Fold:
Amino acid sequence: MEKFPLDFNIDRISGTPGRYDKHIQRMLSDMRGQFADQDAYQKMIEEGDRILYEVYEIGRPGIAGELMQGISIIHAGKVGDEYFMTKGHFHSRLEMAEVYYCLMGQGMVIMETPEGGQSSRELGPDSVVYIPPRWAHRSVNTGQQDLIFFFVYPSDAGHNYGTIEEYGFGKLVVERDHRPAIIDNPRWVPPEAR
Ligand code: M6P
Ligand code: ZN
Structure:
């Protein structure tokens, strides 16, 4: 019991948890090939690498029945007209679900099944999104401030980035007329045609 404290607080200003086991920072350079506008990506990289999002993990043993918790912070910005976003993943154990509780900011969760089914939900202060089993998920910051949300998922779910690294998601979230719009990803190939 003592090895894993059972509670923590979240700082309402910074969104960071009072304790965590792992702090992951994902850089623009970690997202090569993920943003549709490759020229805009290249230009941004040349101006200097930067942190796109951060994850604070509160660990538990990676065994059945345990839950992993944490906070994700996606910074505001765009590559071309596409908003900053996470890499996105399926769970290695595909049947495992996840819950997001948004504390601050504005964004979207883009979801996709292995068969190519598409869905999305909005994230805003105090909204909760349930990501059902089998749905890959990527979160996107469509606002001007950090998007900060709490997540919880089975500790043994694992992350599978494979097909998403190759094809991306079927939908992109871009700015159109000063507001977010969901458009088709030209690079995406339906699973049955891969
Ligand atoms: C969410 C959770 C985490 C995930 C993080 C970053 O907070 O789903 O499990 O690690 O987003 O997303 P990704 O792993 O796709 O880069
Ligand atoms: Zn997940």
